[in-house]
Structure to design on (656 residues):
């Protein structure tokens, strides 16, 4: 057993190993993106389980997204630590709520409200307050903030003022809408996302018997992405813990991207104050990204300001060099989307799997033009949003067929000869018309095929982890995933918001729409808000393992006025741009690069270049073609300046 436990430590560096083997007392891991925080805690749990120091059922691991929780469960399973609960705060709370509701409150748990914004609109209407779309979004955000900070409607104005919130409307009006919204929900017997945590916290506070029962079950807690814990989640965690301190938290203050909802890195940064006996471990080796990507990430951190920035950790890449980040400017959004789709097609042709590519944007509305461009280019893609996977018609049909067959207990003669769950699943799905080979072309038919293919892959993975599993076991697993909204990955290009990309990684990442106004987004006004936008870009950059492309468009529609500028966060980092005059200041003017006038010269002999071909190469025909690094750098600089001077309409600047 000792040998097999040690095997878990093999893939870890000394600091990660320290995290994995410190199983007693509070542990805090402070480390930048890609340094293996998630890996360290996963191995820690596996090590504890394998050495018999942690009982699987007594561990509760909390991650930020359902996908991350699912990945952690998968990794734990393959590390021989099955049975550990890995969930989001929300899904862990919902489960406890469902379990204890009949005893604590009686009856069934109220239904979960899905279209919150409609309820807020209705509440506004009842209060005779007209809200436009932007206000509606902002008021909803304020209500969410109030709830996670446990602020009741009457206290909202004072609390919001104290917290320096930028309210979209008069604060008393918002308080009124908030109160009406709560009433509406109650009248209709519904609860919202925040209520799940609020009610769980309420029950655990009031009912010591229930709190004790939960504490008796869970002895050890591990929290990933702790920098983004909200006050409400923190409260829940404290209630779970009681007087105990078996808590391991990991986080990166530079990746705080949810403070607009009331989350705060203070709990992470003050962990030592709260638990003076805590072991604090720092990781700096970046295992995810190439030195080129890490260089840009560090550059972004160096321009950051504020509390989180004081705790930044310089990353040191452990990987071999790769391609430089590509900066691409386009005339308009459709041109940008087309250009990105083209590059994606090239990457796929060069052997990068579609599932290893992501297009990340600031707001979900940006995705549409990319969906269109990828569909036109015949590239399969998926929108992040696990919840929709199980609602797709083809998936529901497939599940129904599997459940049917599973219920008949495998008596179906068709199945007797089939070895393995994967073959069984394929056979069942073939019987409802699914083919093993993908249909030609792209579009809806191909998308449907991909969803079902993802189910088949999931069945195969599941069977690998549990060779004796039956179809009925698989159906149970699928139902669990459906309840937790943890969908399998469909192997297409991922389209996701930067917020949803947290904790994930891809070989190739496209950060699109990087204009001033989109990132930072126009409604980020205060210094703190702008800094959060910068961190969002840092999160985006650090999702890339190898290829990173940053792009923007100068106008929205073709033929429009080129009024947009590249994101100010790229100043001083993007070749050909000047460093910001006052680093990190919120109101800084976008610095224009200094214009270099004069003719282009051969980078080798200095002769004036006139021929188009020579200009392109930055070298006269007489000079040798071998290029050392310094020259190459100068070439890039020159092209940046050139591009800026000519205001080229649509070009991809640095794709040598
Ligand atoms: P983020 O802050 O983005 O959540 P993270 O710190 O959680 O990042 P991980 O996702 O755990 O980082 O690890 C990043 C990548 O580096 C993963 O692909 C992981 O498998 C790999 N990795 C981590 N540690 C090591 C190691 N010691 N040796 C080799 N690869 C590693
Ligand atoms: Mg992580």
């Amino acid at each position: 057993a000792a040998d097999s436990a040690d095997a878990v430590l093999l893939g870890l560096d000394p600091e990660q190993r320290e995290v994995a083997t410190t199983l007693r007392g509070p542990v805090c891991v402070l480390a930048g993106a890609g340094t293996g925080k998630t890996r360290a805690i996963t191995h820690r749990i596996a090590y504890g389980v394998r050495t018999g120091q942690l009982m699987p059922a007594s561990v509760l691991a909390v991650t930020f997204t359902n996908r991350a929780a699912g990945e952690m469960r998968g990794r734990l399973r393959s590390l021989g630590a099955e049975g550990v609960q890995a969930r989001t705060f929300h899904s862990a709370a919902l489960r406890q709520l469902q379990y204890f509701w009949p005893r604590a409150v009686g009856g069934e748990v109220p239904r979960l409200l899905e279209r919150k914004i409609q309820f807020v609109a209705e509440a506004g209407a009842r209060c005779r307050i007209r809200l436009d779309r932007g206000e509606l979004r902002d008021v909803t955000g304020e209500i969410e903030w109030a709830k996670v900070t446990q602020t009741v409607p009457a206290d909202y104005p004072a609390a919001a003022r104290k917290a320096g919130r930028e309210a979209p409307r008069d604060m008393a009006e918002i308080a009124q809408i908030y109160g009406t919204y709560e009433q509406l929900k109650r009248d209709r017997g519904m609860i919202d996302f925040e209520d799940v945590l609020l009610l769980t916290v309420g029950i655990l506070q009031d009912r010591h018997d229930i709190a004790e029962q939960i504490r008796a079950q869970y002895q050890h807690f591990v929290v990933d992405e702790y920098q983004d814990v909200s006050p409400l989640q923190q409260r829940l965690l404290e209630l779970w813990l009681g007087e105990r301190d078996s808590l391991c938290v990991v986080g990166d203050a530079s990746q705080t991207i949810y403070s607009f909802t009331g989350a705060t890195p203070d709990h992470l940064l003050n962990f030592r104050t709260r638990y003076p006996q805590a072991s604090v471990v720092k990781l700096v080796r970046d295992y995810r990204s190439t030195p080129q990507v890490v260089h840009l990430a560090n550059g972004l951190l160096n321009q950051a300001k504020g509390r989180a920035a004081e705790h930044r950790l310089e990353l040191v890449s452990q990987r071999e060099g790769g391609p430089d980040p590509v900066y691409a400017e386009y005339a308009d959004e459709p041109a940008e989307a087309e250009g990105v789709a083209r590059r994606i097609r090239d990457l796929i042709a060069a052997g990068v799997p579609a599932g290893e590519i992501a297009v990340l944007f600031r707001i979900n509305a940006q995705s549409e033009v990319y969906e269109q461009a990828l569909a036109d280019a015949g590239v399969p893609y998926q929108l992040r949003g696990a919840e929709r996977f199980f609602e797709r018609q083809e998936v529901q049909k497939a599940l129904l067929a599997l459940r049917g067959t599973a219920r008949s207990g495998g008596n179906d003669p068709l199945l007797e000869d089939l070895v393995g769950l994967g073959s069984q699943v394929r056979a069942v799905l073939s019987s409802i018309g699914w083919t093993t080979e993908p249909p030609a072309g792209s579009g809806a038919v191909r998308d449907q095929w991909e969803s079902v293919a993802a189910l088949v892959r999931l069945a195969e993975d599941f069977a690998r982890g549990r060779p004796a599993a039956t179809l009925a076991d698989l159906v149970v697993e699928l139902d669990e995933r459906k309840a937790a909204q943890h969908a399998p990955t469909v192997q297409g290009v991922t389209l996701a918001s930067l917020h949803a990309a947290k904790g994930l990684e891809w070989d190739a990442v496209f950060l699109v729409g990087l204009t001033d106004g989109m990132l930072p987004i126009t409604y980020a006004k205060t210094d703190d808000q702008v800094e959060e936008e910068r961190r969002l870009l840092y999160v985006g950059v650090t999702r890339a393992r190898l290829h990173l492309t940053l792009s923007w468009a100068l106008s929205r529609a073709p033929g429009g006025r080129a009024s947009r500028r590249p994101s100010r966060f790229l100043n001083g980092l993007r070749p050909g741009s000047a460093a910001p005059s006052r680093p990190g200041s919120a109101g800084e003017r976008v610095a224009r690069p200094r214009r270099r006038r004069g003719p282009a010269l051969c980078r080798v002999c200095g002769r004036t270049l006139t021929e188009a071909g020579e200009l392109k190469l930055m070298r006269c025909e007489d000079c040798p073609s071998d290029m050392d690094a310094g020259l190459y750098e100068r070439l890039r600089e020159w092209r940046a300046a050139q591009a800026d001077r000519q205001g080229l309409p649509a070009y991809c600047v640095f794709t040598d």
